[in-house]
Amino acid sequence: MADDDVLGWLRDSDPALRWQVERDLLDAPEDVWRATRARVATEGYGARLLAHQDPDGQWAGGAFFPKVDGQVHAPEGEGQPWTATTWSLATLREWGLDATRLAGTAELLATNSRWEYDERLPFWGGEVDVCINATTLATGVWLGADVEALARWFPEHQLADGGWNCEWVEGSTRSSVHSTFNAVRGLLAHEVATGGDDDLRAARHRGERYLLERRLTRRLSTGELLDPCLTPPTYPSRWRYDVLRAVEHLRAASLVDGSPPDPRVADAVELLRVARQPDGRWLQGPVEPGAVWFDVDVPAGQPSRWLTLGAVRVLSWWDGGGRS
Length: 324
Known about the structure:
Elements: H1 4-11, H2 15-24, H3 30-38, H4 44-50, E1 67-68, E2 71-72, H5 85-94, H6 105-112, E3 114-115, E4 118-122, H7 130-143, H8 148-156, H9 177-194, H10 198-213, H11 243-257, H12 266-274, H13 305-319
Antiparallel strand pairs: 1-2, 3-4
């Protein structure tokens, strides 16, 4: 557990982060953290991002990429833009916005939003990219859209090794930790919202085993450290896999499944533990390039409240044997 100085620093933050500190680290009464969570819609980051929504339900005029004068805006050499609908909605959901504040958005997107990959594809049907479809699935169940056909897409596209790869459409038959991580996150969000079913739960468990067989950190073939694990965690990490996000997912999954922490998580936990600074904080990793509406965390190398919250939360879960 963090000391009082770090907890005070974490609590002195935007409502999107503060309510999670109150709930997960301070054991605040439910009415306290829920009151803070309700403020996400009316102040700070959440209110600012809501204000950028277009009348047609989208952000920046596009599903995955922004549009300028009706044309897809995907500049080369500047990084992926993070302002369009997919990313804006995923961020609001992860910040804890009450979905009722977006009443009507699901219907607007069904009418107005199409995927840049193929503009015949409706928003809630997804497209071919695993990570995009996983994010759309999680967002859809949050907003009450009909995404059941999209949920069934995941078992149908699970590879023989138990994971997924966004490059399956190019013929890839070997899974990716990035794609697999996003797939299991989307399936877990759907399960939490709907109760799930045995087929979807089995697909999620197979994907999680794919990651656990690698101890979240190692190549299965050689035992060498995975390339993504050579990069320190970053907030926001968007689609990218890292050890903090992986352990955060398995913490959430274990609480849903009622299972203890898997011993194969230990290597990832130790990577997080050694990254803790002497003052009890974690430093921001290399920030993903690309246009944003506004910054929500610090530059690389500075103490990050978001990463510190996540790291303290998963270490408390691990050290407590799953009792959080």
